[in-house]
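Structure (tokenized):
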């Protein structure tokens, strides 16, 4: 199947061709035709499946191919709600990239930055508005945004927005949208009962699409655990990073710990930066930009970055601390092993984290290789499955699904779809998907 067969406008196909994208992902192949037919969508899509393109391409097609003159030309005709600032910025970037031959007028509205530039952009007029719920409520209260002309509403990462407590804000925003002649596309990693209930309130006979099992991980990711005493974790991390120069995303549990770890890495001669909720939006944006460009080799993050960081060909993720909720492991390592590329997920696990490791193994329904590093062997072996046994290397089985997580975390997004060749470090070609 090709993008040409989906019925998209020539200007969109031209933008896709220029970016080297030819084959849609499964979520795109199913969602785009249904969206172009004017259906409401309830789409299940995991990180890395190409969901951003799955909704932004038909959205652009609708806005610009319809050529309908809005009654209020400066009021937005489409609204995309996202749970986090980073995801809003990435969706905006994708919309502008795919719509570059359409004269796209789009803007973002999110917290952490000044209100006035956003007010000025809305006053000049946009067709597509990408926003986080909290900041959009601020604009509604200031009457700096008019949502009465919205034709398409998209809820991106709906499960994450509910987990983060945005349901009241979403319902309030819905009260400012037209109830008739509005298309609604809801994208979520899972179809938990609360998602179904939300959809039933404001969607009309949605087409339901599910292309990935909940909490599944890419088969191209190699999982590895290095058991180590907690006091030696930093030394082991430095050992690993100094012996492997690949770009690496490191996850810590706390904001203070992420800052401290980044400082330790910098002092050791590594180019490192930290990203977490206490950083200003400008600091977060700069750190991510430097990491993507290669100016920073190691990005230390809390779970605010577990979903939504859009990074091409990230080869390695290291869990300095295991997440407190097993499902966050899936979201963290979803940054690597995308679009068929190989990835490595390493976890540094101390004795007091063995229960968390057991939870992760049960969630994935697969064993993880346990590999002590010479010179960093723990004083006591990890006890797995509730029994004490020496560390060992275990063969992996293919990942399977598990139940949805009912606990909040922070952040999200995915790369879009078709396959495109990009250089591989070892020679030859590797494939990536559109963003």
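Design, position by position:
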């Amino acid at each position: 199947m090709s993008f040409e067969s989906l019925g998209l406008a020539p200007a969109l196909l031209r933008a896709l061709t220029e970016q080297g994208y030819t084959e849609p992902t499964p979520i795109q192949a199913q969602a785009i035709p249904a969206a172009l037919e004017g259906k409401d969508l309830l789409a299940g899509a995991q990180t890395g499946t190409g969901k951003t393109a799955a909704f932004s391409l038909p959205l652009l097609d609708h806005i610009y191919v319809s050529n309908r003159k809005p009654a209020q030309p400066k009021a937005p005709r489409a609204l995309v709600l996202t749970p986090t600032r980073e995801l809003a910025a990435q969706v905006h970037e994708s919309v502008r990239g795919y719509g570059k031959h359409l004269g796209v007028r789009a803007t973002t509205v999110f917290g952490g930055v000044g209100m006035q530039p956003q007010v000025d952009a809305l006053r000049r007029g946009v067709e597509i508005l990408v926003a986080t719920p909290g900041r959009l409520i601020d604009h509604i209260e200031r009457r700096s945004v008019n949502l009465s002309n919205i034709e398409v509403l998209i809820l991106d990462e709906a499960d994450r927005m509910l987990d983060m407590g945005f349901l009241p804000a979403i319902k309030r925003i819905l009260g400012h949208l037209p109830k008739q002649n509005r298309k609604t596309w809801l994208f979520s990693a899972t179809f938990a009962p609360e998602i179904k209930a939300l959809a039933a309130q404001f969607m009309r006979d949605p087409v339901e699409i599910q292309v990935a099992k909940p909490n599944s991980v890419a088969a191209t990711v190699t999982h590895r655990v290095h058991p180590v005493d907690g006091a030696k974790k930093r030394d082991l991390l430095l050992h690993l990073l100094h012996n492997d120069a690949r770009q690496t995303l490191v996850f810590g549990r706390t904001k203070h710990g992420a800052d401290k770890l980044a400082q330790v890495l910098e002092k050791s001669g590594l180019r490192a930066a930290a990203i977490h909720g206490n950083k200003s939006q400008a600091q977060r944006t700069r750190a991510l930009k430097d990491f993507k460009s290669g100016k920073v080799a190691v990005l230390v993050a809390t779970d605010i970055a577990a979903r939504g960081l859009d990074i091409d060909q990230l080869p390695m993720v290291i869990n300095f601390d295991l997440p407190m909720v097993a499902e966050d492991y899936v979201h963290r390592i979803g940054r690597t092993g995308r679009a068929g590329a190989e990835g490595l997920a390493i976890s540094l696990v101390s004795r007091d984290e063995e229960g968390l490791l057991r939870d992760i193994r049960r969630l994935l329904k697969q064993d993880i290789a346990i590999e002590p590093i010479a010179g960093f062997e723990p004083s006591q072996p990890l006890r797995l499955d509730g029994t004490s046994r020496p560390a060992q290397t275990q063969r992996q089985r293919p990942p399977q699904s598990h139940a949805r997580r009912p606990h909040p975390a922070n952040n999200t997004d995915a790369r879009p779809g078709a396959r495109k060749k990009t250089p591989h470090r070892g020679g030859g070609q590797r494939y990536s998907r559109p963003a």
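Reviewer-requested clarification: The CA atoms of residues 7 and 33 lie 7 Å apart. The domain at 3-210 is CATH 3.40.50.300 (Rossmann fold).
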